[in-house]
Structure formats: C-alpha cells, structure tokens
Structure of Putative alpha-L-fucosidase:
Amino acid sequence: MKRNFYWCFLIFFLNIGDISGLNQPQTVNVPKADKYEPTWDSLDTRPIPPWFDEVKIGIFLHWGVFSVPSFGGEWFWANWQDDDPDGEYVKFMEKNYPPGFTYQGFAKDFTAEFFDPDEWAELFKNAGAKYVILTSKHHEGYTLWPSKYSFGWNVHDVGPNRDLLGDLAQAVRAKNLTFGLYHSLYEWYNPIYLADKNNSFTTQEFVDNKMLPEMYEVINNYQPSVLWSDGDWEANDTYFRSTEFLAWLYNDSPVKDVVLVNDRWGIDIPCKHGDFYSCKDRYNPGVLQPHKWENAMTLDKSSWGFRRNASLSDYLTIEELLETLAQTISCGGNILINVGPTKEGTIVPIFQERLLQLGSWLSINGEAIYKSKPWTVQNDTLTSDVWYTSDGDKNVYGIVLHWPDKSVLQLGSTVSLFSETSPTVSLLGNTGNLTWNVDSDQGIVSIELPNKSTVANQWAWVVKITSS
Ligand SMILES: *[C@@H]1O[C@H](CO)[C@@H](O)[C@H](O)[C@H]1NC(C)=O
Ligand SMILES: *[C@@H]1O[C@H](CO)[C@@H](O)[C@H](O)[C@H]1NC(C)=O
Ligand SMILES: *[C@@H]1O[C@H](CO)[C@@H](O)[C@H](O)[C@H]1NC(C)=O
Ligand SMILES: *[C@@H]1O[C@H](CO)[C@@H](O)[C@H](O)[C@H]1NC(C)=O
Ligand SMILES: *[C@@H]1O[C@H](CO)[C@@H](O)[C@H](O)[C@H]1NC(C)=O
Ligand SMILES: *[C@@H]1O[C@H](CO)[C@@H](O)[C@H](O)[C@H]1NC(C)=O
Ligand SMILES: *[C@@H]1O[C@H](CO)[C@@H](O)[C@H](O)[C@H]1NC(C)=O
C-alpha cells in the first residue's frame, strides 16, 4: 500500500483543523487515506464493510433474455448451441420456433409488461431479506440497463424499452434494502471476446473496449453496494485486468466505502481473494470458515433462470430452505436466495410463498440470524439436527430442525454453558422459560420443549440459552 504519502497529507490537514476551530465536521477518516494497489496482496488487506456480515440474507435475481424461452434455465443459449441434433434443446426449438430462428429473436419478447418494482421490493422486504442482487448482464451479454457499450443488445434497444435495473434499484432502496449487481465478465458469443480467446487471451480488446467500459458505466451510474462477479473461468485475472479494476473500485469509485465483491475474478481466484467468497454455486461447507463467505443458492433446485415447465417438487420446501439457512449462518456465511422472474416481469406464486414463509419465520426467529456471530460449536446431532449461532455475548441460539421425540431436546455441545452457570432457556416466539437438566457424566443437557401444538412457528424452532 502507498500509505506514507497519504499519511503526510492527513497529518497536515489535522493540524490545520485544530488551528481553525473545533466546529468542523469530522470528515477525516483514517481508512479513506489508504490507497490500494492493483495486487491481491494489497487488495486483500481491505477490511470488509461491516454492513454485509450483519444483514445475512439477500435475494438473487436471474433475469434476462433467457427468461423468454424459460426452458432449462439461464444457460439456454449455450445449451442449445452445444446440443446434439436430437437433443432436448434442439427439439424444443424445432417444435416451437421457425427454422433459422436465432437467440437474438427472443429479445423482442422480453417485455416485462407486468414489472412492478415496488411490488418486488415489498416482497423481498417481507421475506426478511436485506439486500437484492440483480443480473445486470449474464453470459448472453444483454444488459438490463441501457448501456452505450452494448449497442442493440440492451433493455433500451430491444425488449422492454425500460431501464429495468435503474427502476429496481430505486424501488429496493426506497424500502431500505441494499442494492447490488451481478455481472458476467465473459460473454459466450461476443465476437470480440472470441477473437481474444482465439489469441489465447494475449489480446484484451474485449476487456478494454467492452467489459471494463460497461463496468465503470454501471458502477458510476447505479452505485451498487455489491458487485457479484461471474463468468471468470476461461481466462485469468491478468486478462480481465481484475486487480486494476478493484483498485479503482476500492480507491476512487463512488461506492468505495460500502461496496463488497465476491471472488470470481479469473482462473484460480475463487475461494482465495475477494471481500467474500462464493467459491462455487450453492457453496455450503458445513463447517466454520475463516473468511467471510456467501451461499448463493436457488429455490428451483436445478436452475437460476425461471423454468416454465418446473414442477412443485423441483422447488425447495420451506424446511429445506430453513435447513440451508441455519447451516449457512452458523458457519459464518450469508445466504443469497435466488428467484427467477418471468419475461413478463412477474415472480410466480411458488417463489412468493417460499419467501413469505421465510419472512414469517424470521419475524419470530430473526434474533438468531441478523447480526449473529458464529458460536464456538456449529452443530449438534444428538437427538435433533441443531445449528448454533450467538449474539457474541450472553446468548446462544440453537436452531432445531426436527422436533425431538417426546419433546425432549438433548444437546451435547452446550454442557459447559450449563455446568458453569445456571442459564435461562426459552423458545423464541413462546413465553415462559424451559426446564432443563444436565447429565455431566454423559455430557448431555436435556431441555423440555413445550407442547408442540402451542408453539408459534411450524418449521425449525429456536432455543435461546442465556447465560447469567
Ligand atoms: C422441463 O424441461 C427440461 C429441460 O430443461 C426437461 O429436461 C424436462 O424433462 C422438462 N420437464 C417436463 C415436465 O416437461
Ligand atoms: C434501514 O436499515 C438500517 C440497517 O438495516 C436500519 O438501521 C434502519 O433503522 C432502517 N431504517 C428504516 C427507516 O427502516
Ligand atoms: C478463431 O480462429 C479460427 C481458426 O484460426 C477461425 O476460423 C475463427 O474465425 C476465429 N474466430 C474468431 C472469432 O476470430
Ligand atoms: C494470464 O494469461 C495470459 C494470457 O494467456 C498469460 O500470458 C499470462 O502468463 C497469464 N498469467 C498468469 C499469472 O498465469
Ligand atoms: C455437523 O454437521 C456436519 C454436516 O452436516 C456433520 O457431518 C457432522 O457430523 C455434524 N457434527 C456434529 C457434532 O453433529
Ligand atoms: C425466565 O427467567 C428469567 C431469568 O431467571 C426471569 O427473569 C424471567 O422472569 C423468567 N420468565 C418467566 C416468564 O418466568
Ligand atoms: C398437547 O396439546 C394437545 C392439544 O391441546 C393435546 O391434545 C395433547 O395431549 C398435548 N400433549 C401433551 C404432551 O401435553
């Protein structure tokens, strides 16, 4: 880091401030004096903006031209191009579209005529989510904002003729949720990208004339608080100029103090560098991680983009969603729950139902989730799957995934809490304290849960253990 130079200025200004009087706003902020260099060694020293770890739950939206066929998911174009002559994508096209139909032909039907961003934002808020991440551009290259670097292939030139990204950003922020963007570095069929690829990525025409200009444009114009990078697996970070871009993002961009990025910035970078690690899709390691991470997962088990032909069993149940949530939060992750909107701009009722179920659960049990910290132990499988969180102080929360036999919950990991002091135990959403006893020889605490029929929520219960 080029720190010393800036420290001189800082000290200079502080001295002036002292002389000129005390009623000046405190604009001097030591971390702002840091300048990150375009190297991972330097970028990795950046402390992550604290808001992200506190909010825990986000909504991911995969929306684009792929939402028009809504067949197979967001990889439709590539799956179709790579399909066998008698494969299901080729057959789908032969059956439903005229010969010679190209992928670009779908864009005029990306109409979004029912898109009501306020309604979406209200749904996400009621789900208990605190941030929303939209695909600004997926691997197809179509931009959800009117980018001047994506001529003829953006929301203004073809499709809804509406700034979908800008309108959603505004609605989300009006509900006090944080707005962020997904962005794909590569574009499957962009001829400039393919030419660079042909040159083994020794030329950077695509990066310099398309990818980076649009990244600066979208950050400057919409100021996202998260930049969720993807499409990095064919070339390295040198080709994408990732560290140069991130140094600008951290030093000079309008979001430098609040923004976080994930780790998909080139071959061999995921799970090694970035403010938070997304590693691989649906990453859920099940053990405490030393670095902040995020589980980007889907409610439709097999797809990020909407699939018109999905059946009920293709979606996670609320029990499965809460299990994933509990595992993720206990191990220090955030959860980013994906929803695939339709080409008309609606979010189908199955997604709404799952999100509102989550919201109702969080309205009772959110204390165990938001702003929580991992506890000493993450899970316990003695009589029931239990995942722990804590408030970093006197409270430990056990998220109980299955109601135990005879309503007696046995925990193996919390004995020390009970043998040293006499804690108070309760069930969130229920009045009254629970009785418990300790078998120190066996190392087991038995907690008597109330009658299940009197308990407020139906799936996953939270036992709160408060040490005195
Ligand atoms: C739905 O589409 C997928 C292709 O994505 C196909 O594999 C599956 O069989 C279809 N399901 C039904 C019920 O048609
Ligand atoms: C907005 O969100 C922040 C952080 O989650 C919270 O502290 C604040 O009270 C919220 N404000 C409103 C008006 O909801
Ligand atoms: C890539 O190289 C091949 C073979 O040299 C050539 O046929 C093709 O047109 C090239 N593609 C691009 C996009 O430059
Ligand atoms: C990154 O890729 C370029 C182009 O293929 C190559 O010249 C360079 O050596 C690679 N850099 C690293 C660090 O692997
Ligand atoms: C914690 O969960 C993991 C993954 O589900 C499991 O393998 C492990 O046995 C559990 N540990 C305990 C102590 O229950
Ligand atoms: C539960 O225990 C705490 C601590 O001993 C006590 O302050 C509180 O009054 C108890 N609550 C009820 C409903 O008995
Ligand atoms: C729980 O409550 C139900 C309904 O009030 C009752 O039928 C049942 O006997 C109770 N079970 C226990 C173990 O108290």
